[in-house]
Amino acid sequence: MSSFQSNKNILCLTEDLLVHVYEKLAAESDRKSFRLVCREFRRIDSLTRRHLRVLRIEFLPSLLQKHPRLQSLDLSACPCIDDGVVSLLLTRVGQGPNSLSLGNWTLGLKTLVLSRATGLRFSGLEMLARACPCLEIVDVSYCCGFGDREAAALSYAVRLKELKMDKCLQLSDVGLAKIAVGCLKLEKLSLKWCMEITDLGVDLLCKKCVDLTYLDVSYLKVTNRSLHSITSLLKLEVLGLTACPLIDDVGFQFIERGCPLLKVIDVSRCKGVSSSGLISVIRGHGNLLELNAGYCVTELSKTLLHWIKNLNDLERIRIDGARISESSFQVISTHCKSLVEVGLSKCVGVTNMGIMRLVSGCINLRILNLTCCPSITDAAISAIADSCRNLVCLKLESCNMITEKGLCLLGSFCLLLEELDLTDCCGVNDKGLEYLSRCSELSCLKLGLCTNISDTGLIYISSNCTKIHELDLYRCSGIGDDGLDALSRGCKKLMKLNLSYCNEVSDRGLGYIGCLEELADLELRGLVKITSVGLEAVAAGCKRLADLDLKHCEKLDDSGFRSLAYYSRNLRQVEFL
User: Fold this and answer.
1) pLDDT by residue (tens digit) across 565-577?
2) How far is CA 403 from CA 122, 337, 379, 400, 426, in A?
3) Rounded to the nearest 5°, which phi and psi values hold at 124?
4) Kindly report the CA angle at 326 between 324 and 328, in degrees rounded to 5?
5) Closest by CA position to 404, among listed 373, 435, 375
6) pLDDT reading at 2 higher than 80
7) Banded model confidence at residue 157, pLDDT cuts 50, 70, 90
8) Is the dihedral of CA 138, 144, 148, 152 positive or negative?
């Protein structure tokens, strides 16, 4: 069949069928290819697209004109957006009699991401809140100018259900009160690092927003009084209390008697909380699904373990940094068979036998963190590979006794692995990477400080692990240009790459990196061989590049940075001093 006939047959497909095909395309790169086929496909993209992430603010008016049926708009990559831009967009989008106006693109918008929009103030936020009657989800995290007046403006979004205000450092109880009074339908709220919020603000919030199911007050200087207020939230399911230094076991006695629907609690790094406080929470909430007590208790005591074993529905537990005995693993294995995630990072007492006992009963594990558990050897990996066939994430940083034998077992049985951290595992070599390359679902692979791997191993990975989007090769001195050649041809979806101190990489290697069109985060620190010629190749090819580390690259000159200025219009951060 000729190319012309094939195209003609495709264009005979009805609009409904084309929309159905389009909706099956999950990756943005695939959708981009779709809309580049022809005008009809581009029209289908415009009609169907519901989510838009804008990388450059100057294109925003035309994009809103092309996609009038948006439900989600992400402007987190446009920190320069300000009240003036918002006013322009709401007055008229585009030019001419057919240009969009207020009555179009804002009416269906449900989600608005304004994270890091440092120039946006109360006037612009109020215009947006009033113009978007269906707005349900807003993210203003890391907006350094977001304070009480901005919160008051946002409170006009009366249908708001989910609000993220992490690290809005100027927000106080006054602004939170405006949100609480204006947004009575709020269900999810994150206030991490909002350091001016006190017990008073939390108390009013809990009285007004009674439908809250998710609340995160991590890193705040709230006290047990806030926990007492939180107990009145009868629908609360998720509570984040990471690193709250002023709460203690007394506060958790309040939690024991309240929040009847609580399923998830994070008390990691709460220095004032002991095993007694955790026992109070568990005693009052036998249906807990997730318990994060990392760096909270120093030891998994027998008393605490006695209560944990009663959590028959527990799916996730993290006890990072605690001392744990081999017998404890057996108890967890016997009684907590629903576990899908276990976090044991930097735990003292983690041995091969302990891990063998754990996985013998917890065969549904999907995430296992054994970071800095130096006693782990291939024997433990063998047990994991044999029992946990559905494993998708395994973290083994600084487990130096793991060899190619263990990696062979992972490559043979854990074929669903998506994330693997082997940082500082000196036993990893090229043969081991050959075995690992069988894990074709890998999307994140960390090999930093693995000094025994070379281009040969990287070629194995590049040939079979084509879904990788994050690769860390920090200080892998055996990696050079040939490996990057294979990487650029095999791993086209790579978005984050760390090549810092890979001293064999030269301008030829950077030329290959320039072929990675999806690359957004690149670390080239300490590459002594690269020059501005290689940097220009990266800038010209990697148009999505947002974060770039060029520290200690001594041969770079002004011409390289001119290339960045010319080509890398999406660049957000450059480190070069």
Assistant:
1) 999 988 989 998 7
2) 57, 29, 10, 8, 8
3) -65, -40
4) 65
5) 435
6) no
7) very high
8) negative
**Are the beta carbons of 90 and 127 closer than 8 angstroms?**
yes
Q: Which residues pair with 472 in a beta bridge?
A: 446, 498
Q: State CA 118 to chain mean position distance.
A: 21
pTM of the complete model = 0.92
Helix (H) or strand (E) holding 522: strand 521-523
- At residue 9, the pLDDT reads 61
Distances (CA, A) of 388 to 123, 192, 340, 422, 501: 54, 35, 10, 18, 35
Please give the Cα distance from 225 to 569 (Å, whole number): 49
Q: Which amino acid is at 448?
A: G
- Pairwise CA distance, residues 109 & 111, whole Å: 6
Q: Is 40 helix (H, G, I), strand (E, B) or coil?
A: helix
Q: For the chain, give the number of residues.
A: 577
Query: Which amino acid is present at 139?
Result: D
Pair 185, 162: CB distance under 8 Å: no
Question: Alpha-carbon Rg of the chain, whole angstroms?
Answer: 26
Give 516-535 pLDDT, tens digit per residue: 999 999 999 999 999 999 99
Q: Look at residue 1 and tell me whether its pLDDT is greater than 80.
A: no
Strands 72-74 and 51-53: parallel
Which pLDDT score is estimated for 143? 95
Q: What is the pLDDT of residues 489-516, one digit of tens each?
A: 999 999 999 999 999 999 999 999 999 9
Residue tagged 């159905």 (tokens): 20
- Asked if 319 and 295 count as a contact pair (C-beta separation under 8 A), the reply is no
- Give the model's pLDDT for residue 97: 47
* pLDDT given at position 22: 73
The answer on pLDDT for 269 being more than 70 is: yes
Phi-psi region of 280 (alpha: psi -120 to 50; beta: other; left: phi over 0): alpha
Helix (H, G, I), strand (E, B) or coil at 181: helix
Single-letter amino acid, residue 408: C
Q: Assess whether pLDDT exceeds 90 at residue 29.
A: no
pLDDT at 132 over 80: yes
Distances in Å between the Cα of 257 and the Cα atoms of 35, 112, 232, 252, 284 are 56, 37, 10, 9, 6
DSSP class of residue 423? T
The single residue listed with the structure tokens 């069928």 is 17
Do 350 and 370 contact (CB within 8 A), yes or no? yes
